[in-house]
Structure to design on (139 residues):
């Protein structure tokens, strides 16, 4: 097989392009709705995502800055700055890890939990229209 034929074999077909287009369209609709919900509540989408990742971290109710950076796909120093802004807003609190003093745990405050659950409820109401978030479309 020539290198040109190999290259063409890896090219997406019409169905692939349609599927990618639909995915990007649905993703953009979701992001737009999320921006509207967060803006109406007076927080940024990144602040909401941070709250969601703190509380939604598997098997615990807190996360480290490094774990949050991974979830947000952001640099650790930028994530630390975001944590600081959320801390100033009263949404999160930093706590030293009792077993590893090098680690700092990020926890939601009562205000942060209220904010998260209110926004998550609004997001969940919209997720049904996207189907792919929780599975089949909600009736």
């Amino acid at each position: 097989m020539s290198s040109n034929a190999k290259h063409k074999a890896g090219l997406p077909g019409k169905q692939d392009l349609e599927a990618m287009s639909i995915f990007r369209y649905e993703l953009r609709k979701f992001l737009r709705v999320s921006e509207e919900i967060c803006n109406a509540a007076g927080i940024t989408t990144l602040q909401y995502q941070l709250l969601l990742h703190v509380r939604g971290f598997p098997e615990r109710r807190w996360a480290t800055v490094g774990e949050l950076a991974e979830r947000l796909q952001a640099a650790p120093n930028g994530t630390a700055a975001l944590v600081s802004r959320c801390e100033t807003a009263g949404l999160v609190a930093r706590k030293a890890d009792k077993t590893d003093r090098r680690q700092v745990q990020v926890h939601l405050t009562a205000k942060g939990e209220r904010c998260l659950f209110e926004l998550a409820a609004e997001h969940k109401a919209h997720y049904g229209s996207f189907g792919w978030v929780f599975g089949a479309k909600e009736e």
Notes: The mean pLDDT is 88. DSSP finds six helices and three strands in the chain. Helices lie at 3-9, 14-41, 45-55, 65-72, 76-88, 110-127. Strands lie at 62-64, 92-96, 104-108.
